Amino acid sequence: MKAGHEGYAIAYAIAEDNLRLENIVVADSVNSIPVTRNAWRDVATRSNAEIVEIEVVCSDKPEHRRRVVGRRADIPGHSVPTWEEVLNREYAPWERRSFGIDTARKTTDEAFRSLLRALTPILQGLDPKAWIPSRKISGGDILTGGCRGMAF
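^ that's the sequence the OP posted. Answer follows.
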């Protein structure tokens, strides 16, 4: 199963519903082209929510390949991209983003801590631990990430 236009449309709708309920939304998806990035921004705008855009990259090509090739689907029926698909994916440089992170020489924990440090001023006094997945804080903000086939 591949997430195409329909998958993104469903994700936008679910995110918007949750933002209207003033839930935090973390949208982790490959936003390799402006149309998807702008769609997330539109969701935030319609919901009257703040948005933080993060570009995640792995600048070390052999390490990136190792991560992609070693990734296994953890959802029944879901397929992960091949290295060839990652290389052939359409990608447009970001015109705007809150910040980016290069995970080439970072463990998952190191990358997560780097993101928390970068988010701290944006979160304006909120406890960064509240942003750990499955923890809920009120406020109705959206956090999106974009990557070019990144796999941890």
